[in-house]
């Protein structure tokens, strides 16, 4: 088979460690589709909507710690993937978007599918490249992968003219990009140590990004030594939690509660994230920052950089003792009766298998998980990082492909789930071991709460109609079965428990619609 | 009720003739949601995905000839609507996007949902405005509506800071923008007349945009007078067709066939569109333009401007006789046996009620409609204008709301339909009289054709897997029922005919999965 730009670039990606391509191609991507038959080290996964492809790449990147490719069709195809790339951007997830464009000589014609792809890509990408030249394509692919890996890691977008993909080139081996390990700034570690020592129990440590056991145990050592307050971001890209894993308070979602939680801090040391800000602005609290105005902060590492080296160096600099696990708090007994956020979270926490991956896009229905998840078997949680709903099912696709030996559970709000429900089909086609639990409260419940916060009068019928998923309600079991995913509906704690027990004896995709 | 920026702006929209808002709001849009209870002349229609809202506004605008509002949630929410706005842009459809953003003082914090909305909006908008000031908001709303109306008509995007929406303002009446009627350039009409007369039967007339009976009859008069060749764009935003309506050849999709169809022209007069270009570029035909190089063109009116005044003036300038309807060509008898693109198109054409609206996003399965639609009862067809698939079901939502007294049929490819299937729920909630016919060939058939065009060797298993909607196949009846739309599956011409006959006796939404 003769080599061309697309084939050589895919081989360069393979050499750089890329193993998966989440694809929703069109005519301008046909050379890439053909090349995927040649480059057998990269698994092609078809998604029926681009938001599934980008959300899957985000979920994959959070678990694998390296980028997958997406393969997307010009500006409109890329645009359908932006929302989940926004979440990936806010998570610092390594992702490489491969976006086909018209042949170089065809761009000036402004054909129907032409648009300004750079303008669309820039808001969600740390790096945007355009390749018009087949000879440069594999080099640009390597540059995009290196950019996505970082540190800091993030989203790289590579726009490729169709003639750069189809033009013949000589085949040649590729030097993969070097993996670079993030090193913390020793001066910053020294300053942080000094500030925390001075502040004592009014010193704060804010953790964000991908949080594994090493970062959490280092933070626990610091807290044990100084009494520092450790807080984790509200929406973490990935958090290790469960029995025997150090657990810390999450920063509350509403800004008045978040500011209250930080109000007595005299200093704030930050690892893996940035100084905390309000998710939304409100009339009654016209202030974005959440830490006290007179609380200085010291950033050890930002988003997309490993927080562990800085936190370990800080704990060592403080002379903190080795980590001693806290006493385990047992889970309450199995609840009975109606399902609500709390009984759902507890039932799930009691069942969750060891080392599972739980994707939490359950919005208000996920509050019970926040309470009980830390007492479940050790696992990883992926949260909605950018507020762009529709992350959950796609993340599950990607996480399951990154970790085929682990059970994946998507705890999914019904309103959010509708944005990317097409991901259910990919779960079925790839036979992924994913349990989707749809929390069917049949409303945008968080918006109903926000309506109450924004107005002192009760909402009228139009406002209520815009926040209710009723008239008709959604039948998630049929939606799942329509895409080849077996499903059941449960209406109480016992029902859910039974459904989960049956899941313990099966694998592959399954959807449970939990009526709340 | 006290007035605020959002309420006053919605009243300005109501005064300007806006009647519908296709909404998928979030926290930053709560003031607009509340205001929709106050401004009773604007109907709020909830969509469960933004691409449904923008595609509905596109369908509405194509039928109503005036803009609807969309209500979208910051950058990620807007981004989900871009693909269908791309189609609206290529159709020249009037649409006004109302995009909520953070409060002005909260933008600098770069909160999780913050992104560069202007960068996302510019590629699909003829006008992008940002309003930070409650006092200016209703004025900016009027400006956006006037911009969307044109001529030329198109997409206007208004980004509104949340504090501009919530800040109190004095209520005051609004002067609506003036409606401006497009006038053709008389010198252009005179030049076109001279060129067409000189070229005789080698003179061409290319029609695009919204094509009603007046434009088509004027073109028929010119053809009768001079023997000019009349061709219509491949993908028209709206075309009147059926018995007694002048029908012309469509420009072929593949560029070699399109160039062949125009190859002997000596001049080309263009109305409602622009000089024709290839949809995609190909290796074997590295040329974008389709008319001969030595064929000059004269544009009477561009996209988004009414083509009728210029065409009527041209026919009159040529001294063409009054329009005489051509003899009607009867439809062939009802086909039997298996369904394919041809028998499907014929069965549908024999059934279609008078003055229906047919939305054709059937891709390869729509070829039979292209043959038989012109002999059906008179109706309007809306086509996929920008190549961004997922237009059909949303267009049907908007068209049915614009014309509640007309039957709407969405002839929908299965692959394309999956991009915005959430629109089925809005059909059910609003009880819209829409028949969705899903053409279930269970493949991206057009991509399989493109694979054959791009390579001389047969596709490998990976390439085939990326173009097949099988393993598992989609069960559209379940997907529809899961969103409250009754549905059936048909497997042959008789089945389809029976299903359509039953539809004649019922109204409301219905989905027919036609197995091809």
What would your notes on this structure say?
- 2 copies of one chain form a homodimer.
- Chain A is an alpha/beta fold and 516 residues long.
- Chain A folds into 3 domains: 5-166, Rossmann fold; 186-317, TPP-binding domain (Rossmann fold); 341-515, Thiamin diphosphate (ThDP)-binding fold, Pyr/PP domains (Rossmann fold).
- In chain A, 38% of the residues lie in helices and 18% in strands.
- Chain A is built from 21 helices and 19 strands.
- In chain A, the strands form 3 sheets. An 8-stranded mixed beta sheet of chain A has the order 8-10-15-14-16-17-19-18, sandwiched between helices.
- In chain A, strand 14 (357-361), helix 14 and strand 15 (379-383) form a beta-alpha-beta unit.
- Chain A is globular.
- Chains A and B meet through helix 2, helix 4, helix 5, helix 8 and helix 17 of A and helix 2, helix 4, helix 5, helix 8 and helix 17 of B.
Question: What is the name of the CATH superfamily of the largest domain in chain A?
Answer: Thiamin diphosphate (ThDP)-binding fold, Pyr/PP domains
Domains counted in the coordinates of chain A: how many?
Answer: 3
Query: What CATH architecture label of the largest domain in chain A applies?
Result: 3-Layer(aba) Sandwich
Strand order of the largest sheet of chain A: 8-10-15-14-16-17-19-18
Q: Which chains have the largest interface?
A: A-B, 97 and 97 residues
Question: Taking all residues together, what is the mean pLDDT of chain A?
Answer: 97
CATH topology heading of the largest domain in chain A: Rossmann fold
The termini of chain A sit apart by 56 Å
Low-confidence stretches of chain A: none
Number of strand segments of chain A = 19
Global geometry of chain A = globular
Largest sheet of chain A: 8 strands, mixed
Percent range of helical residues of chain A: 25-40%
Structural class of chain A: alpha/beta
Proportion of beta-strand residues of chain A: 15-25%
Please count the helical segments of chain A. Answer: 21
CATH class of the largest domain in chain A: Alpha Beta
C-alpha Rg of chain A, in Å? 24 Å
């Amino acid at each position: 088979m003769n080599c061309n730009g697309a084939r050589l670039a895919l081989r360069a990606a393979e050499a750089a460690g890329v193993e998966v391509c989440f694809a929703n191609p069109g005519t301008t991507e046909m050379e890439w589709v053909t090349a995927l038959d040649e480059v057998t080290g990269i698994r092609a996964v078809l998604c029926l909507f681009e938001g599934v492809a980008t959300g899957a790449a985000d979920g994959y990147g959070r678990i694998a710690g390296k980028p997958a490719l997406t393969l997307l069709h010009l500006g409109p195809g890329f645009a359908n993937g932006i929302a989940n790339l926004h979440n990936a951007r806010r998570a610092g997830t390594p992702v490489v978007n491969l976006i086909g464009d018209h042949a170089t000589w065809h761009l000036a014609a402004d054909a129907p599918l032409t648009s300004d792809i750079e303008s669309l890509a820039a808001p969600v990408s740390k790096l945007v490249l355009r390749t018009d030249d087949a000879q440069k394509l594999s080099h640009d692919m390597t540059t995009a992968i290196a950019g996505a890996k970082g540190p800091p890691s993030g989203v790289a977008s590579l726009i490729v003219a169709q003639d750069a993909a189809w033009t013949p080139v000589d085949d040649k081996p590729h030097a993969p990009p070097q993996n670079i390990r993030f090193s913390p700034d020793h001066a910053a570690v020294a300053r942080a140590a000094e500030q925390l020592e001075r502040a004592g129990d009014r010193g704060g440590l804010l953790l964000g990004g991908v949080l594994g056991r090493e970062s959490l145990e280092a933070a626990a050592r610091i807290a044990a030594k100084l009494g520092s307050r450790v807080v984790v971001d509200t929406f973490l890209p990935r958090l290790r939690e469960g029995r025997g894993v150090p657990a810390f308070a999450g920063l509350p979602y509403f800004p008045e509660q978040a500011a209250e939680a930080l109000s007595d801090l005299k200093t704030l040391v930050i690892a893996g994230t940035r100084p905390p800000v309000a998710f939304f602005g409100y009339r009654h609290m016209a202030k974005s920052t959440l830490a006290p105005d007179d609380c200085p902060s010291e950033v050890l590492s930002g988003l997309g950089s490993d927080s562990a080296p800085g936190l370990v160096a800080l704990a060592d600099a403080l002379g903190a003792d080795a980590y001693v696990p806290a006493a385990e708090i047992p889970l309450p007994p199995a609840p009975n009766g109606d399902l609500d956020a709390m009984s759902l979270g507890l039932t799930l926490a009691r069942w969750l298998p060891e080392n599972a991956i739980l994707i939490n896009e359950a919005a208000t229905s996920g509050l019970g998980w926040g309470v009980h998840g830390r007492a479940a078997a050790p696992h990883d949680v992926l949260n909605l990082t950018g507020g762009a709903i529709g992350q959950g099912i796609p993340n599950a696709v990607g996480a399951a492909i990154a970790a085929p030996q682990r059970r994946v559970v998507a705890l999914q709000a019904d309103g959010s789930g509708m944005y990317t429900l097409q991901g259910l089909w990919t779960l079925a086609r790839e036979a992924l071991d994913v349990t989707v639990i749809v929390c069917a409260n049949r409303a945008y419940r968080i918006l109903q709460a926000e309506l109450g916060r924004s107005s002192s009068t009760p909402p009228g019928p139009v406002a209520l109609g815009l926040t209710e998923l009723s008239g008709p309600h959604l039948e998630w079991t049929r939606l799942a079965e329509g895409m080849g995913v077996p499903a059941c509906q449960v209406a109480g704690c016992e029902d859910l428990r039974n459904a989960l027990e049956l899941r313990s004896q099966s694998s592959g995709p399954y959807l449970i619609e939990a009526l709340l």
